Amino acid sequence: MLHLMKHWQECPYGCVYVVSIIEQLAQVHNSTTKEALERLCNFLPEINYLCFATFPFRIETEMNADMVCYSLKLCKQDAGQPRCLLYHTPKVSYPWGYHWRGKDCNDGRPTVYPGRRTQKSFFFPNQGVDPKDGIPYEQKFCTESKGVILLGDSAGARFHIPTEWMTAAQLSLKSFSNLPLHKYQDESRGCSRNLLNLMKRNQLLDNPAIVIYAAIGNDVCNGKPDTVAHMTTPEQMHSNVMQTLDYLNGHLPKGSHVILTGLVDGRFLWDQLHKRYHPLGQLNNDITYEQLYSFLSCLQANPCNDWLSSNKTLRDLTSERALQLSNVLKEIARSKKYANFDIFYMDFPLVEIAEEWHSRGGEAWQLIEPTDGFHPSQIASALGARIFWQKALREWPHILGKENPFNKQIEDVFGDQGGY
């Protein structure tokens, strides 16, 4: 929200979103658009001083957000290109740092990260040692320390934008109480071609690691108009993954483990959402996910023109390619051996996630992030982590033990189902 408010003039979707929220706030509170703008600006005290300077116009009530942004020339129609509309018809900074959950991370110190071996302090040699017997607390109370590394795309990054930010009736000062935690702009664009850039590891100084290779969509998803031509081919997939594994073998400590995860069948997205209303359209039942996907495609900003498309043939072709790439991973895991890690393949557990969520009384569409209609929701991420780890426990019981660390976490997540 803060990013959109500050940079709304640079992004057509940002303009349409912000104007939509202002219009809906006026509708919900039976106020003028000027009063609605004041209300929205007061929710964001950080930028209150520039809020009115940013919106030096009057929104006419008979104009929808598309019309306002085009009239201000913030949205434009290039020659030979379609006119991008979200609505069907017109109405007649915080610094980088670490979060408390990552106390073993510190952006200011490159030697502090998960999986680093404990280093004894020259000045405090007995720090962390039980004075009664001289045994380190870590040795007494902790299982073997291992780093867990996720090499993947944004689907594994727990991407989330609160639905309250898209729902005028729920907007309040409290809605933005956690704003600092959402200022991080997710830039996870990992696919088989560039995952090497995402991992830093020291073979001599680090503990063995569990590496989860989970680029589950970006090898087939892209925003190109000729999307099929830009999908990764099976031959490219094999070459890219082999380069990654060779790199890992040269950087991971001996005794590490690598899990290759298959690609997801993204037809699930369209099937579950295209007829449902997006949070921005729930007040007036005027924006479906099908409209959102079409609008983003028109702006050339659709994160996956392949699966987020009304073209069933294209959706099926994309899933076929995803299966081909998954089979490449499966064959690599079956046939390749490495000195510093063992390796196995796991299908992305979409079916198991949906079945478990259904058994808890949930509906399948709730497994998709509602604000973008693309990423896994917080519920799906929590379920997926537990199911994924349970399969890993069966493969390496002698390494991982019997406890699943995600069992407790998942109950915490279900206590707050992200607005569903």
UniProtKB/TrEMBL annotation:
Pfam family of the protein (one): Lipase_GDSL
Residue ranges of domain Acyloxyacyl hydrolase N-terminal in the record: 14-94
Any GO BP: lipopolysaccharide catabolic process
Family matches, as InterPro entries: AOAH, AOAH_Saposin_N, GDSL, Saposin-like, SGNH_hydro_sf
GO molecular function: acyloxyacyl hydrolase activity; calcium ion binding
Gene3D superfamilies recorded: SGNH hydrolase
PANTHER family membership: ACYLOXYACYL HYDROLASE
UniProt name for this protein: Acyloxyacyl hydrolase
Source species of the chain: Sphenodon punctatus (Tuatara)
Protein encoded by which gene: AOAH
